[in-house]
Design brief:
The structure holds two protein chains of two kinds.
Chain A (H helix, E strand, L loop, with lengths): L7 E10 L9 E11 L4 E5 L6 H9 L6 E6 L2 E2 L10 E4 L11 H5 L1 H5 L4 H14 L15 H13 L5 E5 L7 H18 L2 E6 L2 H7 L2 E5 L7 E6 L8 H4 L3 H27 L1
Parallel strand pairs in A: 3-8, 3-9, 6-7, 7-8
Antiparallel strand pairs in A: 1-2, 1-4, 4-5, 9-10
Helix pairs in contact in A: 4-5, 5-6, 7-9
Chain B lengths: L1 H21 L14 H6 L2 H14 L2 H32 L1 H16 L6 H8 L3 H25 L3 H9 L4 H38 L5 H10 L3 H29 L13
Helix pairs in contact in B: 3-11, 4-5, 4-7, 4-9, 4-10, 6-7, 7-9, 9-10, 9-11, 10-11
Classes of the chains: A alpha/beta, B mainly alpha.
Chain lengths: ~270, ~260
């Protein structure tokens, strides 16, 4: 484990955003953050709202260039000039499906961009629709689907390219509790098949513990950085709705929450002040 | 269906009212001092009708209508295509957009109909001066809508497509264009009307063919019935073109949710 090159290595990342009207008022979203994701590891990042979790993920995706610090993907430097992180799939918090494409056309979009012949792409797309439980819904447009179905579609759209790293930005936060637990179980089942490296962002500690091998706690913004790193040794396969009741889960929850609580209160006080 | 009947009923009512108010001697003159004055100023529906029938029966209208429709279609297509192209280009290139911004604003606020005489000088009295006028009118409507449409594309969609491996060209084809299309179609309905305005105004100012020319001729001899006949023919054509745009729109925009639509499973 120690000698192996991590799938994703964020080293000493700092992100400063220039203020719109005053350059001296730059906002430091993330400061000196270091975070590694090993191969096949499921890492969750939790933190109070508005602490720069998504910023960190965008840096990992290559969508955002950090002010300083480096990103390494399987040992290779990710440079802004070379475009996005090609080995990563990204699942967004908000809907990012193309509303003018049917379900199947959305799923095969990535293959299409890579120049895979249409017939082959559709074949794979149908298979993925079946795997996420959307068989027969391929001809529907996103607006004809429920929130849960759209999330599954987005999941299929990302996973069809079989990325080595999966980046997820609070993907299930807009769903109701029941749908959400179903989706979490489905995600775990899909992940268990080939154990990609996952970096999962959430503000929900329960979700983080239930899904992950490791939970990283971020401090309140500005100048967010990891302040806690907790190993989750709960047995797999897990059922997210049942595992929440086990004593081991509750112990972990208590321990991590103790580390998080102060930061959450800090973030809350800051937001109230504004 | 019921709606259609009511619509036709309203049309019938308007025509009857028009007839009653203008037929000489039918109602005693209450505004004009002579019985045939109302007919002189407002025409008479049955005469307008016969003018139109006569035009189509004798075939006299076809070359004129053909010219006007050709000018309209050319103005519409060239204006819409250049509006789409330049709108996309400026929306995707912040530098070019910043440089040209004041000029675009200036051209847009200029009353462009005043360009008609200049176009007549540049392009002669044939169809191209009318097409040019139509293009200047259509271009800006489409241009601003495309510009806005591209600017309003959700950053999430772009980021997602990039993560899925889309190149710049693929982004343009799969994200920017379809996203701008709904804005484009909203503008095309206006643009059809404006292309007609360009053609007819151009014909007014100098031409030897076209429905605008027919109307101008009739005006010169105070033949109000023929003027109204020309106006009605143009209106009908504009309606047909507008519904054609609507047809294409429904074809291409099937993905758009319709308000209050329930899905039949």
């Amino acid at each position: 484990m120690t000698n192996e090159v991590p799938a994703l290595a964020l080293a000493d990342i700092t992100c400063r955003f220039a203020a719109r009207d005053d350059a001296s008022q730059a906002y430091t979203a993330v400061a000196n953050a270091t975070l590694n994701v090993a191969r096949g590891e499921f890492v969750s990042v939790v933190g109070p709202t508005g602490c720069g979790k998504s910023t960190l993920l965008n840096v990992a995706a290559g969508l955002l260039e950090p002010s300083s610090g480096t990103v390494e993907v399987f040992g290779e430097r990710l440079l802004a000039g070379n475009g996005v992180n090609r080995r990563a799939g990204y699942m967004f918090q908000a809907d990012a499906l193309m509303p003018w494409r049917t379900g199947i056309d959305n799923v095969v979009a990535g293959l299409e961009f890579r120049g895979v012949p249409r017939a082959e792409a559709v074949g794979q797309g149908e298979a993925w629709l079946r795997r996420v439980g959307l068989a027969g819904f391929g001809d529907r447009y996103p607006h004809q689907m429920s929130g849960g179905m759209r999330k599954r579609l987005a999941l299929a759209q990302t996973l069809i390219l079989s990325p080595d790293i999966l980046l997820m930005d609070e993907p299930f936060s807009a769903l109701d509790v029941q749908t959400r637990q179903l989706m979490e179980n489905e995600l775990l089942a899909l992940w268990a098949e080939d154990r990609k490296s996952v970096l999962f962002i959430t503000h929900d500690l329960e979700e983080a513990i239930a899904l992950s091998d490791r939970v990283v706690v971020l401090s309140a913004g500005p100048a967010t950085r990891p302040i806690g790193d907790f190993r989750v040794d709960l047995p797999r396969p897990r059922d997210v709705s049942e595992i929440r009741m086990t004593p081991a889960f509750l112990d972990l929850h208590r321990e991590i929450w103790a580390a998080m609580k102060e930061e959450v209160l800090k973030a809350y006080a800051q937001q109230k002040a504004i | 269906m019921r709606l259609r009947i009511l619509q036709l009923l309203l049309l019938g009512l308007l025509v009857v009212a028009w007839y009653v108010m203008t037929a000489p001697g039918l109602v005693p003159p209450f505004y004009f001092d002579k019985a045939n004055r109302a007919a002189f100023f407002f025409g008479e529906p049955q005469k307008v009708f016969w003018v139109i029938v006569d035009w189509f029966a004798s075939g006299e209208i076809f070359p004129h209508l053909g010219i006007t429709l050709l000018e309209t279609a050319l103005g519409f297509v060239i204006g819409a295509a250049s509006g789409l192209g330049i709108g996309l280009w400026l929306a995707l290139s912040p530098t070019a957009s910043a440089i040209t911004d004041p000029y675009i604003k200036g051209f847009n606020s200029m009353p462009r109909v005043v360009l008609a005489p200049i176009f007549a000088v540049w392009f002669g009295l044939g169809i191209w001066s009318k097409v040019a006028l139509g293009v200047t009118l259509v271009f800006f409507v489409v241009f601003f809508n495309v510009y806005q449409g591209v600017r309003e594309v959700s950053p999430n969609l772009i980021a997602n497509a990039r993560m899925l491996g889309a190149s710049q060209r693929q982004l343009l084809r799969s994200i920017y264009l379809p996203s701008a299309m709904s804005w484009v179609f909203a503008s095309l309905h206006n643009a059809v009307g404006l292309a007609f305005v360009g053609a007819v105004v151009g014909e007014y100012l100098g031409s030897s063919m076209g429905v605008g020319y027919l109307i101008l001729q009739a005006e010169g001899t105070f033949d109000i019935n023929t003027v109204f006949a020309g106006i009605l023919v143009l209106t009908a054509c504009a309606l047909v073109l507008d519904s054609l745009v609507g047809l294409v729109e429904r074809r291409l925009m099937t993905w758009q949710p319709k308000a209050g639509q329930t899905e039949k499973v």
